[in-house]
Amino acid sequence: MKGLLLLSSIILLLFFASLSHASDFRRRASQPLEEELYKTEEDIKAEIIFGRSLSARILGRYPIIKDKRLTEYITLIGKAIAQYAGRPEIEFHFGILDTDTINAFSTPGGYIFITKGALKFAEDEAELAGVLGHEIAHVVERHIVKEINLRAPDESPLTGFASLIAGATGTAEAVFTAFVDRAYEILFERGYKIEDELSSDRLSTGLLKLSGYDPEGLMRFLKRLNDKGMVKEIKGTHPGIEERLKSLQRFMEENHLSGEEKNRGKERFYEKTGRN
Amino acid sequence: MFLRIAIILLLVLTPLSSFGAHLYVQSIKAPLLSEPRLGAPQIAEPQRGEVLEVIEKKDNWYLVKYKELKGWVSRLLVDIKPPKEKVSVLEETGQKLEEGARKRASAYVTAASARGLMEERSRLSDRYRVNFEDLEWIEAIKISDLEASRFLEEGLRK
């Protein structure tokens, strides 16, 4: 009798201990709980709708180059590396902005833009993939969504992002427009937080490695920008290039990526971009 | 009596206690590595949707068990939930145009009508120009995951 009671007690204790462990694990595995707010299908749709509005503003500033063959090439590179980015629910779209400025942008929901200037500045496919990967990383990590704290203006029972889009009131309209304004300011005036830039650089380098490109692609592109004194082109929107280069170098060393076989895709890059 | 209770508790609670210690591969492939660093030798390559059993977590890496093999996988490639299908607001918009602008009577508006509503608001902004025509041009370019994978394999063989 006593033995059975003891056995039952041990089982119960083991169960509650393991439940606590499982709960703790789920919390750690899913990253900050805050992120869960953005994971319902309605939230993802809202993210795309928000990203479309922001993208339309970018394209109001710089029109797209309607070269289908070249855009398909950029899209193939971008989609190929995005397959390793861990957000399979996002359909990424890519476009080339008609400006000689060297820069790239992204908006929530998977819209990625590279300028004609940045495309010309790249020397091979791995560099181009590195620049696209950096922007893909901003989308995957939801940097804009988190920075502007995109939430509903009230205590709506709907999840934050979706309720904002679903709102049909004048307040919701004003809040939506204000959020798009703030996101636009991040892209063209304030820039991302430096930690978001460093994180996107690391993730992009990881994407290059996972997809089989030269992992130094992004680092080579940034280093050349720095060496040629062209940093001012991206300074406002992508701050701290020297810190970024140091951080990337450290990441390469920690992950033993230096001295990797160099798959730069130079031949195809020259062919597709019409260079000699 | 107590024996029965003990057996029932053992049968019911033990499987529940291990719930949550699994991760699903989200990326198209997720290299299982011998050490928690990207340059480490690859042991196996689980595909999207496959399940990994977690043994330990260290910074941005999980030590996992996969088909009797143990190795490290980056946290960026896995999630506690199975991978989702692609989410789109574009198809619904097309459907809406065909069916007319019917509104749902629920608390949600459909993604498509919400999209239309919000884009209308965005167009009303007097501070910025907007260009949805160019946006729709890039959205019309369709590349499948399979095409992207083939492109990667072909190019990197050169």
Keywords:
heterodimer; A: 276 residues; mainly alpha; three-stranded mixed beta sheet; 13 helices; 5% strand; globular; B: 158 residues; alpha+beta; five-stranded antiparallel beta sheet; two-stranded antiparallel ribbon; 5 helices; 7 strands; 20% strand; elongated
3D architecture notes:
The complex is a heterodimer of chains A (276) and B (158). In chain A, 63% of the residues lie in helices and 5% in strands. With 276 residues, chain A is mainly α. A three-stranded mixed sheet of chain A has the order 1-3-2. The longest helix of chain A is centred in the first third of the chain and has 28 residues, at 2-29. Chain B is of the alpha+beta class and 158 residues long. In chain B, strands 6-5-4-1-7 form a five-stranded antiparallel sheet, with no helix packed on it. In chain B, a hairpin with a 2-residue loop joins strand 5 (61-66) and strand 6 (69-74). In chain B, helix 2 crosses helix 3 (111-124). The longest helix of chain B is centred in the N-terminal third of the chain and has 16 residues, at 2-17.
N-end to C-end Cα span of chain A? 88 Å
Assembly status: heterodimer
Which runs of chain A of at least 5 residues are low in confidence (pLDDT < 50)?
16-35, 152-158
Enumerate the strands of the largest sheet of chain B in spatial order, edge to edge or round the barrel: 6-5-4-1-7
> Shape of chain A, please?
globular
Biggest sheet statistics of chain B: 5 strands, antiparallel
Number of alpha- plus pi-helical segments of chain B: 5
- Rg value of chain B: 24 Å
* Protein structure class of chain A: mainly alpha
